[in-house]
Amino acid sequence: METDIQIAQGSSLKPIVEIAAALGLSEDAIEQYGPYKGKISYPTLMELKQKEAGKLVLVTAINPTPAGEGKSTVTIGLADSLNAAGHQTMIALREPSLGPVMGLKGGAAGGGYAQVLPMEDINLHFTGDMHALTSAHNTLSALIDNHIHQGNALDLDPSRIAWKRVLDINDRSLRQIVTGLGGPINGQPREDGFDITVASEMMAILCLARDLQDLQERLANILIGYNRADQPLFVKDLEVQGALTLLLKDALKPNLVQTIYGTPALVHGGPFANIAHGCNSVLATETALSLADITVTEAGFGADLGAEKFLDIKVPHLRKAPDAIVLVATIRALKMHGGISKADLAQEDLGTLEAGFANLSHHVNSLATTGRPVIVALNRFAGDSPAELTLLQELCQAAAIPVALTEVWEKGPQGGQELVKTLLPYLAEEKDFTPYYQVEDQFLTKLEKLAQKAYGAQGVDLAPKAAKQLNHFQNQGWDQLPICMAKTPYSLSDNPSLGGRPQNFRITIREFQLRHGAGFIVALAGNVLTMPGLPKEPAAFHMGLDADGQVFGLF
Amino acid sequence: METDIQIAQGSSLKPIVEIAAALGLSEDAIEQYGPYKGKISYPTLMELKQKEAGKLVLVTAINPTPAGEGKSTVTIGLADSLNAAGHQTMIALREPSLGPVMGLKGGAAGGGYAQVLPMEDINLHFTGDMHALTSAHNTLSALIDNHIHQGNALDLDPSRIAWKRVLDINDRSLRQIVTGLGGPINGQPREDGFDITVASEMMAILCLARDLQDLQERLANILIGYNRADQPLFVKDLEVQGALTLLLKDALKPNLVQTIYGTPALVHGGPFANIAHGCNSVLATETALSLADITVTEAGFGADLGAEKFLDIKVPHLRKAPDAIVLVATIRALKMHGGISKADLAQEDLGTLEAGFANLSHHVNSLATTGRPVIVALNRFAGDSPAELTLLQELCQAAAIPVALTEVWEKGPQGGQELVKTLLPYLAEEKDFTPYYQVEDQFLTKLEKLAQKAYGAQGVDLAPKAAKQLNHFQNQGWDQLPICMAKTPYSLSDNPSLGGRPQNFRITIREFQLRHGAGFIVALAGNVLTMPGLPKEPAAFHMGLDADGQVFGLF
């Protein structure tokens, strides 16, 4: 069995200008980063807005489990399969963060015969977008501390600064730190901490900005803290949105790459899927919509988090909502939702599979409230028994859920033809779209609708701190923003140990965080770690270059 | 008067593949980063080592003053002037650090009609080399703290970790911090701090590495700290040199750009000129030597620091020592060395000029001990009076120092023809080269020779801490390494307020720092700030994009 990186290195890539030419883009429209990566030039991006939008397919999944679902793999494989079937298709995907690549993940560019290439570059520095964000974020941090050090004309309260620092690294030691030690020449001591770069509000902003002007306005609107008279202060009060925009002007441009089978893919932006909205950039999705007949895109975690945010936070900035939604499920993951332990996954177990099906059917029903068709992609793994596969298909049919087996990991585009056949008729339909809530709703109504529809919760409770914050937000008029829920991805509830379809539960919001520049309010339903740690044996231990200069250890 | 950025934006650039083609490099040899920047491919770099080396000109300067010298401008302008005179010439320069660009400097790509382009890119993220270094450096930091957190099998003493963290930002608040707060899940609390990325040992390593294997060996040899039995521990003990090499494999490749007049320039690497050696990469200089008849390169600060390190630390890794050395001086700076205040600089003052000449003549005599010719480039500023210019030329002639007026900032290649005519005859000569010291000398002998010849000091004293360290280094066999002196750049002595040519002084070494991977020992003669702060009005305040998307505020 070949590894992902062996398959990737055994693939022959076309020059990226050739991939672009097939999309009708001239060489001038592509800023090359080596022969196989390119950013789409800014004037081209703006021109493409005028073109008609193609069809949009959103790929989401059941709640993730340690068994793995293969959502990115299905996204890539579905697009390859559509192209193989003669439908001009593009991919819009998030770009990986270096921290998890060096930590547990070792890479995030699909797998098997459904990968975006060059996977070594995409998994490492790629075109530098993450690094530009790290620079811009920390430049703002330095400017804030420098403002205080140089006289603090804005009277910024050092104990109420709302802007942390970031690095694209998994580093638990930086979560909570004290800065400014060593006497007055080093500034003023205060508590601070680092998040991982993908958790930066600037990443969310980059992924929601329509153009450079919109980017600059959102950056200007970032809340940096409060003065001692309790008034909010923003980047525009520091007057540094120009420099920050400058640092992000290239990162704003989507990155064009290709799959193993030459399908063009825009891999751009990667906001955290809990304290941010977890999808690739608006500009990448919009550009793909203009360039292709069908765009396949993906949202983070399960449908309750990722798809909901895609539909409620991202869709208002797109020309259209998804024409169809593909929900990825695996036998293994459904069995885990049904209660099997990871150690027993290899055993056939129809009982836990049937029990776990409740998770899938909840997501299908929930997504169906939007009015858009939902198709289940059953992502086949080697150990799935024929009886298990048959049972799941029967359960879907009994519930009138369209389902298709996919084997793109093992077989590439050949393995996705059943999904293509099942999906295509739904793309021809035109249907109304209903988001989970209306952004004009009362804030608590929005929260309730979201939790009831997306999670199947009975309702939402606010902890005292959250209630107090909501009051403040209402006074400031910030409650008109959409909600970005930070909840465990592992359960429909806010308790990560409750798999399947938990019943009779309520969601408790501990705290809110304003993302004034990005334009949403994060609602924290549980602890969210915004700086991961490294495992005992990080993936970095096994990486390197062999004697021929070939990369090894990414997957 | 046009600003630097206006001149830059008014220039028309050739596609970088055209610049490369004129050097005999095929399109395959260039990894494009947009149309005007390219990295030279690794196989091409290795092939070029076989070609014969052209002539090498090192540009250095008198001790810097607040009046400015224009060393990079003369370097770029000299190369343009040589090309205009029909001599095929290339430039090898350092790349700027984003921290100072956002802080005081606003840019560092030459000035006036002697600039490397595209200056906006070079001054911002360029091709991501700095960011790759930041990533690799902090990945190692995270792996070290993770090692301690996950059981500390190497028994690393948390109070003796020799590896800090870095960011390419000016941020005084990060100089001294405490990390790992918040309980055991966040690791172990300890004192730490951030340096600016250009101060990272990895930057020095990148700039000295001959190839990927050499890079990996040097990374493996980085000292990370000591165990509780007082034994040194290295990156190779953590076994992560492979992952670090992977993160730096693209940053190792020199970046090809062009000047306003189309002169090819390799702009690559930028180590600090105090705690590191302050010159662009060995690979860039070597590659330029193979591609051009003449290579013009530059070393940081004044000749006592930058040129000395070039000659003693970098030259052993090059095929040749410089064929000639150009020493940049300005009337303004010499007057400041003679004692005039910055406020009075506009006044003609022959007395302070003559007094300040002692600084220039010391550098010329010191550099002459290497056996290589030294030519003074008198970099003309608008306010220089005819009498001052005449006096300086007379002083040089009286001391038999070749001198040429340069006006490349204002006039481009036309303004450098006198320097070309003065320099060229010296390039035809073949002379022996003598470094300031022999690396095999006793360590104290090396220190004494360096201080006496380069600084005109009477000798060197070791503070008790330094003496104790030297003893440890001798026991470990590390005293065989060259010295990297970290001294104030503003004086030949270790007292920054002593301009001109101080007499009867000794140099005191407070402390040593081992750079075991880079392969030198830093000798600290005074306080060296390895993380700059931002000024009251950072350059970032005045940067941005105008309505047409044009960058403003870099210079």
TrEMBL record, chains A, B:
**InterPro entries from the UniProt entry:** Formate_THF_ligase, Formate_THF_ligase_CS, P-loop_NTPase
Pathway per its UniProt entry is: One-carbon metabolism; tetrahydrofolate interconversion
Lineage, top-rank taxon, reads Bacteria
Spell out the molecular function terms from Gene Ontology. Answer: ATP binding; formate-tetrahydrofolate ligase activity
- What reaction(s) does this enzyme catalyze? (6S)-5,6,7,8-tetrahydrofolate + formate + ATP = (6R)-10-formyltetrahydrofolate + ADP + phosphate
Residues that hold ATP according to the record: T65, P66, A67, G68, E69, G70, K71, S72
- Annotated coiled-coil segments of the chain: none
In the record, the note on similarity to other proteins reads: Belongs to the formate--tetrahydrofolate ligase family.
Quote the protein name from its UniProt record: Formate--tetrahydrofolate ligase
Task: List the taxonomic lineage.
Answer: Bacteria, Bacillati, Bacillota, Bacilli, Lactobacillales
